[in-house]
Amino acid sequence: MRIDDAVEPSEQGMKLLEVGTAYFLLVLFAIGFLDLLLVLAELLASGEFTDPNQVIDIIDTVLVLLIIVEIHQTVVAFSRDEPVVRIVIAAALIAITRKVISYRPGEYANIEAAFVAAAAFSLLLAVLIGAYYVVRRTNTDAMTSGPFGEGGTGTGTSGDGDSPGSGSTADPPAADPTSDPESYDAGGRDRAGDG
User: Fold this and answer.
1) Of 44, 177, 190, 194, which sits 20 to 30 A from 64 (CA to CA)?
2) Helix (H, G, I), strand (E, B) or coil at 102
């Protein structure tokens, strides 16, 4: 018996658990979203929607929901064997932002403890912003330079799909058969040309 054959069922089981976790997070997000709607309706009915503490609590709930979304994206990307570093850093950024927004010095035993917590939040936020910038810059540089030097990919965009390229002079991407379906046959070949 080969080791690969022996390990295969455990890998399939792990993939099923990852998919189950993604669906669990979806249900958790739906419950949180419904709870947010109920809280908003209650605040509007009571007239307390202008209370700063209530607004901070609502923002806190929205940020928790965004953390759930980021964790869901992490699980899905991990199960697809895609890179997850940028997603994890984004989730950590949201989490620390949530702590900064809901920071209340009165919750600490003394002023020194509150100051240490504020300094720690600030340091974590700065480190995470730096890490996010480095990861994003690395992805952009890797995608725009390609394996054969400047402009190797031909698209000039980053791997995460949210930022423009660095303005390389690469060839434009091939024509999309879905953009003008009458110009292409069923196999996606150009009707006007030979190929």
Assistant:
1) 44
2) coil
